Amino acid sequence: MSKDAILGAIRRGLKRGPLPADQRAMLDGRLATHPRHLIPQRSRVSRPEQVALFVRNVEKEFGSVTRVADAKDIPGAVADYLAAQNLAPRFVLAPNPELQELPWSDKPMLEFEARRAQPSDAVSVQHGYAAIAETGTLMLPSDPARPTTLNILAETEIVVLRASRIAGAYEEAWDLLRAERTDAVTGGFMPRNVMLVTGPSRSADIEQTLELGAHGPRRLHIVLLDDDPAARSADDPTARSANDPAAPPTP
């Protein structure tokens, strides 16, 4: 059923015709401008503080974070995390070019397939699109190179995220998605699904007892690539000058 047919059925049910021109113009203007709501002051801080806030909020919500200074260190960080959790060195990998270009061969013990997740997969490695510092939340829009099943089926989810993709507030993360998801035909489109993930899955529905992994991954680990020179604090021993040729590239 087309959008016009659905809206027409709703109008008939409400016994109402098309909106008057002034009301339609008001609604179209509101949709086009994306008005801001209240933004928590805790996210209005410097870039290093935003990244630190994101990490604190992830850990507060039972997730964990490993920070790496260079993309070549990501396979090692994944291998170390799996070993620390006593997990087999096998996982399903998002078929994302940025992840597939990593030097996985440096860790020959790791075994993986680039595809959608299946119920039998124990560990997934997902590509992080963006994140929100104010709540420690990951933004994971669906995409052929970022299958949603990787966020749901595996008991352990590892997300590779660039520090440069951490926004202070939700509104800024949505701005990023709108700016990058455009086309010449419609002027803009949204993915079919956008998952906002804050920590591992959990529930306290039964006797108010917290249970991790109730509806999805039991563990959420983020490998955070420090690719944003502005987000590194001055006392960070891994911080490098933006002019340093050894500094990791920005996206």
From TrEMBL:
Q: Where is the composition biased (Basic and acidic residues)?
A: 229-238
Signal peptide interval? none
Task: State the residue spans of region: Disordered.
Answer: 228-251
Q: Where is the LUD domain?
A: 125-225
Coiled-coil segments:
none
What protein name does the entry list? Answer: Lactate utilization protein C
Originating species: Neoroseomonas soli
Tell me the classification of the organism that encodes this protein. Bacteria, Pseudomonadati, Pseudomonadota, Alphaproteobacteria, Acetobacterales
